[in-house]
Structures are given as structure tokens and as C-alpha cells.
Amino acid sequence: MKTKLTALAVTTALVAPAAMAQEMTIVSWGGAYSKSQLRAYHEPYTAKTGVSIINDDSSAEAVAKLRAMDEAGNVTWDVVDVVAADAIRLCDEGLAMEIDADTMLAAAPDGTPASEDFGDLLVSDCFIPQIVYSTAFGYRTDLVGDTAPTEICAVFDTDAYPGKRSLEKRPINNMEWALLCDGVAKSDVYDVLATPEGQDKALAKLDTIKDDVIWWSAGADTPQLLADGEVIMGSTYNGRLFSVIEEQKQPVAMLWDAQVFDLDGWIIPAGLSDERKAQALDYIMFATDTQRLADQAKYISYGPARKSSAPLVGKHADMGIEMAPHMPTDPENAKNTFLYNYEFWADYRDDIDAKFQAWLAK
């Protein structure tokens, strides 16, 4: 692998900056998250290079769309934001290019190589970590009555908390929460979910609230549903909930119990021209350095993936509030977390997806 990567680095170095593309399509998740990237990465990069960036909010369908582009021989995306499990799948399928962290990513300010600075978060040869985030629940403080929910299983308790819930329209996280609330021990969840019987058990638990669920596909959906009062509680990424609570001042609060920790970051699609590859690598070098990752935390409550960035996280750029207490990794928020299993979902995602979508259609 080292020989191939070194050759790739040399090839990239030979592409002069003047020959780089002057326009890029960067794919992400939309909403408050894309806005944080716009301010922390895209705008400074455009100011520095003159390269214009087209935003595409298709990350939720990234795997399927990259497969289709590869099949058609027409890859139109330059850099794509994906969760770690999807990066593993794309790398395994040859749809993402391999990255040599120490030659293609910036070192820390003190000279620490990128591979050490990112450490264990480099979960795939193709994955460039960006943030640590969690999927958690928000709830309407004015709709839950006198006793606010404190445990994840409140989501399944429609007697105590009647009203609509919003859940993501995919099995990930929903299946884990369902098993936890059906009595499966946290340490056994993925062993159970690996069996057809365990999958049926999770779907049976979800059946108990299926009629009360509004299914979402975009991370911005739940914050809007909460703001409009259409749901009493709903899952989404913690940074989206931060936005609706702190920036929009809606009557919404966090339910951190059993928040699911995950990683998000970049991949560069395989098969780009030398010109586009050089541009993508130049952007990645810039956007994932220590300062840029710390800068993103000024706009949204996600923890930067570099160790060297953490000490630079301070106050929100506009509101002036300390960001550390709003991070999923804050000790008060992380009392009962659930650790997402990247390898499990890389292996089982397609099969369980098909089963989940068939269940949804019933």
C-alpha cells in the first residue's frame, strides 16, 4: 500500500496549482452542519485560493449515488462527507481513494504527524476524520408534562409521553435503541443484532411506536419538526439540536441518555482526473488542519477529531457561550453513551437496510 500511496503523492505533487480545477462540488448533510463547514472551511478556502465551492446536501445517499456514478463512469463529486461506516464500505468497494495521512494531511502545529494526531479515529485507509458527534434526542419542554424524560426508553413510552416522535428512516441507531429498551444488555446488542431473530426482535419493539413515528432523512428535519411542535421528541445529530435550542431559542431540551457516538469525515471519490484529485487533496489538507477543525466547533457542538484541536475549542463565534458543555463528550452528557460499531454496520448494512425498508413498507 505504501508504494502505491507514495506514487500517488508524487503524481499529485506534479500537478501544478494553476492546473487545478477552479470549481469543486463538496457533498455534506445540509442545515446547521453545512453552515458550520461553510464558515470554518469553505469560505476561508475560497478566499485563499479563489476556488468556488458548490454545496450538495446528498450525504445521506452517498453510498448509493457513488455506486451509480462509478457504474456510469461519471463521478461528479470531488469531496464527500460521510460517516465512518460508510467510508469503510466505500473503501472496501474501491469507490474511495486511499489516504496516506502523514503525506496528504497537515501535521499538528508542534510537528506531530497527522496519523498520531488523529490516532484511533483513522478507522479506514480512505477516511479523513473531521468530528466526533452523537445521535441523540431532543424533546419539547412544553409538551412532556411535569416529568421530563431522562432515559432513552421514554421514546417507546407513549402512555407517559403521548404524541409523535421522529426517527431516522434507516435501521442504524433505531435497532440498537429498540434492543436496549427490550431488555438486551448494552454489551450484547450487536451480538443479538447479528442474528435474524435479533433483528426481528428490534423491529417488533419498533412496531410498538410505528404509528406514532414521523420518519426523517435529512438532519435538519427533526429540529424543524420540534420547532413546529409536530413531534414531542425526535432523534437527530446533537449539533442540530444545539442549533434549535441555543441559536433559535425554541422550547427544546436534550435527552443525552444512550446517545450514540459516531465519527464523521471526508472521503475523496476514486476515479477523479489528476486535476480534480489535486484540488480535492489541496482542500483536504487545508480543511482538516488543527485550526480549521477547532474553528468548526465555534459554530456547532461537535468535537474536533484532532487531539491538537481540542485545546483551541472556546466560545461560540456569534453567541459567545462556552462550547465545551454542549459537546457530546462532556462528562455530564456522556454518563450513559452507546458506542457505535463501525465494522458491524459496514458488514451488515445492506442486508439490514433491505429488511428495515420492507418492514417500513408494511
Write the layout of secondary structure elements.
Layout (H helix, E strand, L loop, with lengths): L1 H12 L9 E5 L3 H19 L2 E5 L5 H11 L6 E5 H9 L8 H4 L9 H5 L9 E13 L24 E4 L5 H7 L8 H5 L2 H12 L5 E4 L4 H7 L5 E5 H10 L4 E16 L6 H14 L2 H7 L6 E2 L32 E3 L2 H20 L1
Parallel strand pairs: 1-2, 1-3, 5-6, 5-7, 8-10
Antiparallel strand pairs: 3-8, 4-7, 4-8, 4-9
Helix pairs in contact: 2-13, 4-14, 7-9, 10-11
Model description:
The structure is a single chain. With 362 residues, the chain is α/β, with parallel strands linked by helices. It has helices spanning 2-13, 31-49, 62-72, 84-92, 101-104, 114-118, 174-180, 189-193, 196-207, 221-227, 238-247, 274-287, 290-296, 342-361; strands at residues 23-27, 52-56, 79-83, 128-140, 165-168, 213-216, 233-237, 252-267, 303-304, 337-339. Strands 1, 2, 3, 4, 5, 6, 7, 8, 9 and 10 form a ten-stranded mixed beta sheet that branches. Strand 1, helix 2 and strand 2 (52-56) form a beta-alpha-beta unit. Helix 7 packs across helix 9 (196-207) and helix 10 (221-227) packs parallel to helix 11. The chain is globular. The chain starts with a helix and ends with a helix.
